[in-house]
User: What shape does this take?
Amino acid sequence: MLAPSCFTAWFRQAILVTWLGLALVSPAHAVGPSPLTLRGLGRTSLPVDGVWQFHEGDDLAWAAPAFDDSGWQPIETGRTWEEQGHRGLTGFAWYRKRLELPAGETADYTLALYLPNVDSACDVYWNGVKTGSFGKLPPHPVWYGLGGNNGRVVVLGPPQSGELAIRVWKAPIVFLNAPNEGGLVAVPRIGSTEAMESLLSESLFRRVQQGQFSLSVARTCAVVGLMALMLYLRNRKQTMLLWLSLAMMMPLARNLLLESPVPYSFGVSYTFVGPLAAVKDIALWFLLIALLGLEQRKRLVRWTWIIGLTAIGLDLIDPVCLMLNWTTWPPGRFLIIDVVSSIPAIYMELWGLAIVFAALGKRLDAARWMLALAALLSDLLTAMQDTTGLGVRWTHWSLAEKLHATLFTIDGSAINAQAIVNTCLLVSILYAAWRYSVEQNQRQIALEQEYRSAQELQQVLVPEKPPAIPGLVLTCAYRPAQEVGGDFYQVIPLQDETALLVIGDVSGKGLHAAMTVALIVGAIRSTVEITDDPAAILSALNRRLHGRLQRGFATCLVLKMERGGACVLANAGHLPPYLNGIEIQLPPELPLGIVAETKFDTVRILLSPGDSLTLYTDGLLEARNQAGELFGFGRIAELLTTTGNAEKIADAAQQFGQDDDITVLTLAVAPVGVLHA
Assistant: This one.
């Protein structure tokens, strides 16, 4: 047995140990983490790591140095707060840390804090005084979650011991959030202002260095795009150049928003990234359609427009919500809208596959197939990154992270799969565009040769000067609006000292109209071998042209000049001629080529010596000046009172403003002894 004195001593020790144990574990007397001693700080920097005090919620009283935070939870910096047990936490939370500056430390500098990264924004308090911010807190928050996050330096003031309190705000969850977010996701550092600025500069340099390859590719694309735009402005018909320009300039715009060190806010970045990506996709799709020779696939082109514009509309939904300050909405409201609008837009990115598959049956050269393969890889990679990256918070798929991972570096610049595919796409587009330009140049040379041949043919079929007709004074003028025209006229002497005059106009312009003119002139010449009756000639022409003008038509006026000044006219939808400046009234008739069995009536007039008859095409009537005013019937009638020369009439209309082919033919009964003028 123990002696009473020994038992009493043992009992007292047990009570003391128990009391001390209870005191240590009692919440009311909990002891927080030990302060961080800034030993040897000088002008260098130290990490503010270790255990901090952490508390969810918001109260500005928590910034006070004397506030007792011993009951707060421990947390570490350099890791998200979701990783440390605060899953799904959004809104406000506070970090606190006591910093001790040992006595005798050099104090001839200004103390500053470097925050490499904060999710989403924060205010910094030093000894109860707000000294700086990272972003901007509600009610009008600004944060940097899409690439503008380059760190911040917050000046604290003269070196001294104190309480560092950081008020952090985390934005509500959206579709692109990562699995773990929130808080001081990088370890802050403390030191002199110069040292902190140096850290910030070094961080910016590393960021630029890592992205210099992608930025160089984007800049090269932009230069190519600018050149393509300048070429397009010179020739608006080459829409391929417009799509090339847009497809090439969008990567630089995206790089400036997401990869450059310029601190764009989340709202600004997110507002434009989606629509810019959709515009880039549309431009790439139509560039593929042009280079793969799919312009004639009307259904494919129509659906490309529908899907592209729908994608832009879906991508604009989020920016509209952002402009309405969606952070104040009920929890989850914006997330639902974000998911519903983003998922269809993601799968629309795969439309490029449909375009490439549409060209599988075509015989294309290696340049076009190389482009198709690069575009296919780009579409697939972008779609895979978006499909597996957006929503990864819930799916926990790791493919997007692997696709974004650095494969190797070149002079410090990180190269990943996206950079390689973008480079291949750029090279293939440049090569295909160069081949396309060469082919277009060859086609243009061939087309110009065809136009020259057509011009030579028209010069034979539509003579510059009419033949001499006894007893008539004839003048003519033919001014095509392009290299070749759709107007025609013929002056055909007959055996009995009479003549046929034919004037007409084919609908449309260019080479097709010129070829139709050749067909009509040949038909006129062959028909005149059979009959010289104007109505019969028009009927024969109408039967030959019906079904051959591809929904077009031709107007024609045939005039037979007989002895003694008698004229027989037949008209097929052409403008009536002027007799001495007054328009002749002719019965309305259909143009040639519309109805196969159209009947044409004839009108007889008598010309006396000195009378002047003027035949013309609608290019004279429809000449238009810069103000949009037409030449019109009034000017024609006034002009005919002063001159009867076809060249002067055509010159007046051409100087007024030619818009279509102009043909003028005048005839008059010559005085006795005059054969032709």
